[in-house]
Write a structure and sequence with these properties.
262 residues; mainly alpha; 2 domains
C-alpha cells in the first residue's frame, strides 16, 4: 500500500504543480488564473487536453510547442516534478496524518513562492495570506487531536506557541532588513522574504527558522556567484533559497534543541 499511496501523492503533486506554475506566473501580473486557458507563450496556441498532461506531454512533444515548434523552457516541468516529489515525501515522512496535510500545504506555498520570485522577484502576499490561514487551521486541528479525541484547550495552546514563533521569526527577519538598509543605504531585502519568515516560524519553530536563514545563505552563495558570472544582473531573489532551506529542515525533522544538548 505504501507504494500505491506514494504514487498517488506523486501524481497529485504533478497535477497541482502544473496549476502552481499558472499561479506563480499569472498572479504577479494581475492576470486571471482561469482565463485564458493554458497557451504557448510564443504563438498563443491554446493547449489541448493532451498537451496539458504534466511532464508527459512536455517530453512527448519534444519540449516544443505543437503548433509553432518553438522550444519551451524546462522551467515549468521542473516545478511540476518538484511538487510531485514534495507531495510524495509528505506521505513517506509523515504517513497518512494531519502532519502530511501541513507538509503538502507548506510545500505548495513554497513552490508558488519560488516560481513567482524567480520569474518576477515577487513573493505574493495573497499566497502567503491564504496559505498562512490554511496552515493555522491545520495546526489548530493537529494540536487538538489527542488519543482519537479533540482537546480544544490543547489546540489553542499549541497554536498559540506556533503563532508566537511565527511572530518572533517575522520580527527577527524585519530587524535584519532594517540593519541591512542602514548598512547598505538602500532596500536590502524584499517585504515578501520577511513575511515568508512568519510561515517558517509557524511550521518550523523559531530556532529552525533562524537556522533556515543561515542555511539559505550557504546554499545561495555558490549559486549566486555562478548566476552573476553568467548574467549581467546583480539582483538575485532570496526567496527560493529560503524555501529550499525550509523544506530541507521540515522534511528532515531536525531538532535543533536536541542537537545543541548532545
Amino acid at each position: 500500500m505504501e507504494i500505491y499511496y506514494s504514487i498517488c501523492f506523486f501524481v497529485f503533486g504533478l497535477v497541482f504543480g502544473s496549476f502552481y506554475n499558472v499561479v506563480g506566473y499569472r498572479l504577479p501580473k494581475g492576470e486571471s488564473l482561469i482565463k485564458p486557458g493554458s497557451h504557448c507563450p510564443n504563438c498563443n496556441h491554446e493547449l489541448n487536453w493532451y498537451e496539458l498532461i504534466p511532464v508527459f506531454s512536455y517530453l512527448c512533444l519534444g519540449c516544443k510547442c505543437l503548433k509553432c515548434k518553438k522550444k519551451i523552457s524546462p522551467f515549468y516541468m521542473f516545478f511540476e516534478l518538484l511538487t510531485g516529489i514534495l507531495f510524495m515525501l509528505s506521505y513517506l515522512v509523515f504517513g497518512l496524518s494531519v502532519k502530511t496535510i501541513i507538509a503538502v500545504t507548506l510545500s505548495s506555498i513554497l513552490v508558488i513562492t519560488m516560481i513567482s520570485d524567480i520569474l518576477f522577484y515577487i513573493i505574493e502576499d495573497k499566497v502567503l495570506l491564504v496559505g498562512g490561514i490554511i496552515l493555522i487551521i491545520e495546526l489548530f486541528i493537529y494540536h487538538g487531536i489527542i488519543d482519537n479525541t479533540f482537546d480544544l484547550v490543547e489546540a489553542f495552546k499549541g497554536l498559540g506557541y506556533n503563532l508566537l514563533d511565527g511572530s518572533i521569526a517575522f520580527g527577527i527577519m524585519y530587524s535584519i532588513k532594517l540593519l541591512g538598509d542602514f548598512v547598505f543605504k538602500k532596500e536590502s531585502m524584499g517585504g515578501g522574504d520577511i513575511k515568508l519568515m512568519f510561515i517558517f516560524g509557524l511550521t518550523l519553530g523559531i530556532l529552525n527558522s533562524i537556522v533556515s536563514i543561515f542555511l539559505a545563505s550557504i546554499i545561495a552563495l555558490p549559486i549566486s556567484i555562478i548566476i552573476l558570472k553568467m548574467k549581467s544582473t546583480h539582483e538575485i531573489p532570496f526567496g527560493p533559497f529560503l524555501s529550499i532551506a525550509a523544506l530541507i529542515l521540515f522534511f528532515s525533522q531536525v531538532d535543533i534543541i536536541e542537537l545543541l544538548t548532545i
